[in-house]
Amino acid sequence: MPLDKPYAGIPGTTIFDADQSRKGYWLNQFCMSLMKAENREKFKADERAYLDQWPMTEDQKKAVLSRDMNAMIALGGNIYFLAKIGATDGKSFQQMAGSMTGMSEEAYRDMMVAGGRPATWGREQEKK
User: Fold this and answer.
1) What is the mean pLDDT of residues 44-66?
2) From the Swiss-Prot or TrEMBL record, what is one GO molecular function term (predicted)?
3) Does 32 score more than 90 pLDDT?
4) Would you tell me how many other CB atoms lie within 10 Å of the CB of residue 44?
5) Is pLDDT of 127 > 70?
6) Please, are residues 31 and 63 in contact by the beta-carbon 8 Å criterion?
7) Is 108 within 8 Å of 114 (Cβ atoms)?
8) Average pLDDT, the chain
9) Which residue in 70, 73, 57 sits closest to 17, CA to CA?
């Protein structure tokens, strides 16, 4: 029986819990492999071939190939592991976070410096 997850209804938020960890195990292991230079080179040389060495779902592989960070998170990716993909691509964490919000790096930075998103963000969906 699944545990009660009172946090499951937070709009626009995926909580990385035990279920997400199990779902994203191989995706996150792939990301951690990118800590080694030789693996980064293999990945950059033929991304699909490198991904096919991992028992990830096809949806996870497609999310990596398209660099869809939000999809990777929904599919069990942990942002701290996913950052290895960004680093492999020469992207900063701030650039990655901006891409996840649909904002430019500068707009994302300015929003965070100003205190982040308002608490009401994402709640518009609840009213529909």
Assistant:
1) 98
2) protocatechuate 4,5-dioxygenase activity
3) yes
4) 12
5) no
6) no
7) no
8) 88
9) 73
CA–CA separation, 58 and 64 (whole Å) = 10
Q: CA 30 to CA 28: how far, in whole Å?
A: 5
**Nearest one of 93, 59, 16 to 51, comparing CA atoms:** 59
List the alpha helices (DSSP H) in the chain. Answer: 18-23, 25-33, 37-45, 47-51, 58-66, 69-74, 79-88, 93-101, 105-113, 124-127
Contact present, 87 and 79 (Cβ < 8 Å): no
Whether the pLDDT of residue 84 is over 90: the answer is yes
Tokens describing residue 42: 């293999």
Query: Would you say residue 43 has pLDDT above 50?
Result: yes
Instruction: Give the C-alpha separation, 117 to 47, whole Å.
Output: 34
Task: Give the pLDDT mean for 84-99.
Answer: 89
Residue type at 41? Answer: E
